[in-house]
């Protein structure tokens, strides 16, 4: 049996000083980030493999003689419409003209609200994002949610912090250049209007830490209350433009109420012409990546080069694959699974998941900070976990989605409308528990608090995360810890606010919450002192990343415990010069192999709830099992005194 270790270790770095560096530094030093990427690592390598597999599937569909209207034909025609550069260049910016004329003709804020709803159906978001999911206080039925939006920079902090002044200046230039390419007259004045209004909108945005608070961001309103909250916004016109079914907005959950109030005030304090410029920019910036080459290049020059430091635009076929994935993802997923996901991989994963759940069960029974009452409820929630592995049991039906050969923007608009209709039609109805929020070809995983489910698409179930033919140690350090991470989200600072039914209910005792929060604060402080390896001059935001950090720490801790359970039946041999316990931690670290461009590392620190790769890899310093496996001693870089170690699970 092979070990499953894929890294070439750097003997100049002691594992006791830097687990991430020991495992990954040789790769980091030898690897150039591809020119079309802002970062690259283990996740990205698998994404490239998935992308290539999907390309093969899509190109076969495009070349096939599948019947008109069949799923395969739709895939082929959509991809073909994106790859038809002659037609796209010939059209230029003309596909925008009708909608830009509509915006220019708006005579009131009510008409603005109506058109905002119409554009949302085409996938062009206005001042807020609209989506449908389970009601967190009644998770047996769907409800509409409204969240803050309306800005073009990554986060509200980009509009106010001095360190982003250069980005703001470049953004105004970008607005001017791209809008001029779209045919907007006096593009310089247009850009100033857009920036001024976006700055006003951003001033009412909640920051990234506040928005992730499950309790603060759950604010249910009746339609009448929504009108009181934002009286200057014509909600009736918006709902009409959205073509929402009768009663769809009888109740909505508002993520950031003060944002809507601020937006309402801004509607009367800025001229209608400013709002028309802003909505025109929302349309132009959204559609630019699908128009002629000059607009595509300008869009990438800012969003790729300036914001992330990415030197080169992705090849067109890669962007075409992404379009197909976004519109017809589960059609491709069925074909992907048939070719790339062997049944025995799912069987092995079922065994791994069972051991992880058993490890959590044993852990909860002995946790010192958890009271008997909370322990009982935690075990009850754990017993109701639903694992989904590989692919859905029920595939999405795209028969009502029309794809027209050669009509790229029309296809994108119809795809957005198809998805919006699917979402709107289920408001107030029962939850579809067969649904997946990721396709099988996605290299990722997730926990859904209202569904109390963990989901592992087929594409992540490959080395270095999972090797069906490898020894248990690296599999438990890789995918096992990832499973533990996702289960742990059900009990992290936000997931722990949802009970086993998925309801947003405070089921912990106040004393348990206080003890848990103290441990979380200790972890926040630990990460606040860390820096991305690719941008050592800045610090991680421990408050923003705490949920993922708890997930990583818990996943590693429980992954190790699950590995120990597996060893009860099948003790590990020494392989490649390492014991099983050592290979477990080496397997964990090789999952985090990666590097980022400095600009991208800084952008992610501002907005990403995940800590930079070197930080979760080295979270192992909190485990006494790691200290024992590698004989870590005081003075070593990875050493943490027992009193400083954070152990939540």
Automatic annotation (TrEMBL):
Alphabetized GO MF terms: metal ion binding; metalloendopeptidase activity
PROSITE patterns documented for this protein: NEPRILYSIN
CDD domains: M13 (cd08662)
Cofactor(s) demanded: Zn(2+)
Residues covered by the Peptidase M13 N-terminal domain: 16-392
One BP annotation, GO: protein processing
GO cellular component terms attached to this protein's record: plasma membrane
Family annotation (InterPro entries): MetalloPept_cat_dom_sf, Peptidase_M13, Peptidase_M13_C, Peptidase_M13_dom_2, Peptidase_M13_N
Gene3D superfamilies: Collagenase (Catalytic Domain), Neutral endopeptidase , domain2
Segment forming the signal sequence: none
Alphabetical UniProt keywords: Hydrolase, Metal-binding, Metalloprotease, Protease, Zinc
SUPFAM superfamilies associated with the record: Metalloproteases ('zincins'), catalytic domain
Matches recorded under Pfam families: Peptidase_M13, Peptidase_M13_N
Residues in Peptidase M13 C-terminal domain copies: 444-645
PANTHER family given in the database record: FI17812P1-RELATED (PTHR11733:SF167), ZINC METALLOPROTEASE FAMILY M13 NEPRILYSIN-RELATED (PTHR11733)
Family note: Belongs to the peptidase M13 family.
Protein name per the record: Putative endopeptidase
């Amino acid at each position: 049996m092979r070990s499953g270790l894929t890294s070439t270790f750097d003997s100049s770095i002691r594992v006791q000083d830097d687990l991430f560096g020991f495992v990954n530094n040789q790769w980091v030093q030898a690897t150039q980030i591809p020119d079309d990427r802002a970062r690259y690592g283990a996740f990205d390598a698998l994404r490239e493999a998935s992308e290539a597999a999907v390309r093969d599937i899509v190109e076969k569909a495009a070349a096939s003689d599948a019947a008109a209207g069949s799923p395969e034909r739709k895939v082929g025609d959509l991809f073909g419409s994106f790859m038809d550069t002659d037609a796209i260049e010939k059209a230029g910016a003309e596909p925008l003209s009708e909608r830009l004329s509509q915006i220019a003709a708006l005579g009131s804020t009510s008409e603005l609200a109506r058109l905002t709803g119409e554009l949302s159906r085409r996938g062009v978001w206005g001042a807020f994002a609209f989506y449908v999911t389970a009601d967190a206080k009644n998770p047996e039925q769907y409800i509409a949610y409204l969240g803050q939006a309306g800005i073009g920079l990554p986060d509200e902090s980009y509009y106010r912090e001095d360190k982003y002044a250069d980005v703001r200046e470049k953004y105004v230039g970008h607005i001017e250049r791209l809008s001029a390419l779209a045919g907007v007259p006096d593009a310089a004045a247009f850009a100033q209007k857009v920036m001024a209004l976006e700055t006003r909108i951003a001033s009412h945005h909640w920051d990234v830490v506040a928005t992730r608070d499950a309790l603060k961001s759950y604010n249910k309103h009746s339609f009448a209350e929504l009108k009181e909250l934002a009286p200057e916004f014509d909600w009736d016109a918006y709902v009409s433009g959205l073509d929402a079914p009768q009663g769809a907005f009888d109740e909505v959950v508002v993520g950031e109420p003060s944002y809507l109030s601020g937006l309402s005030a801004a509607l009367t304090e800025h001229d209608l012409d400013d709002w028309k410029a802003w909505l025109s920019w929302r349309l132009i910036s959204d559609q630019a990546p699908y128009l002629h080459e000059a607009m595509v290049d300008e869009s990438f020059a800012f969003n790729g080069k300036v914001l992330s430091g990415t030197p080169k635009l992705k090849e067109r076929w890669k962007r075409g694959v992404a379009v197909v994935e976004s519109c017809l993802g589960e059609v491709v997923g069925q074909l992907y699974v048939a070719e790339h996901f062997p049944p025995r991989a799912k069987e092995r994963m079922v065994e791994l998941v069972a051991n992880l759940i058993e490890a959590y069960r044993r852990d909860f029974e002995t946790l010192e900070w958890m009271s008997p009452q909370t322990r009982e409820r935690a075990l009850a929630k754990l017993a109701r976990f639903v694992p989904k592995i590989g692919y859905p049991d029920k595939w999405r039906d795209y028969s009502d989605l029309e794809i027209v050969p050669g009509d790229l923007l029309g296809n994108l608009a119809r795809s957005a409308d198809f998805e919006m209709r699917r979402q709107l039609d289920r408001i107030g109805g029962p939850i579809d528990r067969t649904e997946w929020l990721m396709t099988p070809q996605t290299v990722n995983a997730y926990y859904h608090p209202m569904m109390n489910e963990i989901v592992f698409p087929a594409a992540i179930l490959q080395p270095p995360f999972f090797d069906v033919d490898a020894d248990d140690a690296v599999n438990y350090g890789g995918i096992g810890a990832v499973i533990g991470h996702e289960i742990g989200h059900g009990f992290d600072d936000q997931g722990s606010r949802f009970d086993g039914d998925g309801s947003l209910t405070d089921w912990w005792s106040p004393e348990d919450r206080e003890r848990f929060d103290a441990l979380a604060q200790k972890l926040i402080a630990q990460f606040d002192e860390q820096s991305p390896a690719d941008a050592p001059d800045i610090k991680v935001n421990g408050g923003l990343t705490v949920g993922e950090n708890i997930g990583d720490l818990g996943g590693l801790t429980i992954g190790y415990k699950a590995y120990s359970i597996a060893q009860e039946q099948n003790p590990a041999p020494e392989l490649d010069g390492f014991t099983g316990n050592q290979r477990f931690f080496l397997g964990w670290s090789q999952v985090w192999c990666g590097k980022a461009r400095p600009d991208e590392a800084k952008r992610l620190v501002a907005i990403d709830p995940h800590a930079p790769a070197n930080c979760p890899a080295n979270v192992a310093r909190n485990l006494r099992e790691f200290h024992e496996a590698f004989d870590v001693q005081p003075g070593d870089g990875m050493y943490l005194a027992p009193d400083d170690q954070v152990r939540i699970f």
